[in-house]
Amino acid sequence: MARASRRGQGRERGRHERGHAGAQRRGQGRERGRQDDRARRSKSPAGRDRGSAATTGRAGHGKDPARQVALDALTAVSRDGAYANLVLPPLLDAGGLERRDAALATALTYGTLRLQGRYDAIIAVCVDRPLERIDAVVLDLLRLGAHQLLGMRVPSHAAVSATVDLATTAAGRGAATFVNAVLRRIAGRTLQAWIAELRESAGDETQALAWVESHPVWVVKALRQALIANGRPDEELGALLAADNEDPQVVLCARPGLIAPEHLARQAAAACGHEPRLGDISPVSVLLGGGDPGRIGAVRDSRAAVEDEGSQLVALMLAQERLEGRDERWLDMCAGPGGKAALLASVAAQRGARVVANEIAPHRADLVRGALRAIASGVAEVRCHDGRRYGHEEPGHYDRILVDAPCSGLGSLRRRPEARWRRSQADVAELADLQRELLASAMAAVRVGGVVAYVTCSPHVLETSLAVRDALRRLERGGIGVEVLHAGDAATRIAPRPPAGAEAQMLQLWPHTDSTDAMFCALLRRTS
User: Which segments of the chain have a pLDDT < 70?
Assistant: First the structure.
């Protein structure tokens, strides 16, 4: 494993932007930070900078359409910076795959991406060259084969044979011979034996977890710090990392006033052929037992939508928090792609309130409009504006404001597995400034007595509790008083089952305890 410890860990730096111009303008500094960070990470094979990878050279899907589509998706992710959840559906449609093949292609794609770090560490033991010197498509083929051998119930001979055939088509006979040799070495040991070797060869427990649970070292350290900061034992780290590598259950949101959760569950059962159940964390959630949610009528007409329970809960926490006086003007400051905005608007419609759904990126604003199409006319208005300007341009105007701030996305790695290989600690530091500016703007734009929910899909302390404390210090200097409400109590009042961290003043959800994304929520009331 000494060879593995020398492998480079350069990351392709795809952006998971949520469309704020301030972050975009700092591009040059971001690139310098990435280059510096890439130079520092030189002791793990968990990833590499792809440069200009070769194309697959495919002529069609041939006799194995599922594996070909999976390879096409992996190539788009590694070469083009695509996201699997966006690139895979059109590939499945274009390939005309039957349901069984589509399920296999999906499992291959997401499983390979989630466990890429583990497989790279194993591949590094089995080759005689640095991973950076392996052709990009060939490396994706090796990862794809490794996942079939070690992560799925595919017989070894079938996994090797199918991947070698795919390599012949995609990269040529020479590459196929190389793929065959490496995969046979991998197949020579069980997963348990490989994990034992990775643990033995790692320099410390952090590196061992990084390889075995397939996360960059900096993410392992950040998640350990987040657990401790939220009063959870360090021993939970392994379970948290493992949860990031599991398939998340598909969850539906029944938008209040448009469809009841019980009615949505009946629709889902009829359309998908699987028995769903009502959720545990959100009172308007339905946990889909299986099948394609696009077959459900309420999802097609936007009375319901696919949305994580944690995402639903934090929006409802803002909507349900007690207010004195006026309650007519709501703002979703960073609304794209629109799930929380639509949930807020459905509640607002029942109360006679209006929602401004703000999204700075025009293409994401279009997604918000689509999410809102079932909402009654006049309830919601979509704007394209810089959220940081609301505090100056509309001071004290709003009663409730949601700041679903652009973040690293470390809380949604189950759904966006490639994000872990694209982000860096430098990205988190850069986003931190934007997060604090947005929160300060929201506290200036809300009226005295009004409530702001600061939300991120990340547990990183720099993006969560520290962001709130930094913003509060800045606001205090500006003469704005803020009371930090007990978000855990707010969640307990709403959730069918209280979240694991409900005793805390600021709520942090976790995939390994709550089966949600790692959403953070702080509720803040303006007092002066």
Answer: 1-62
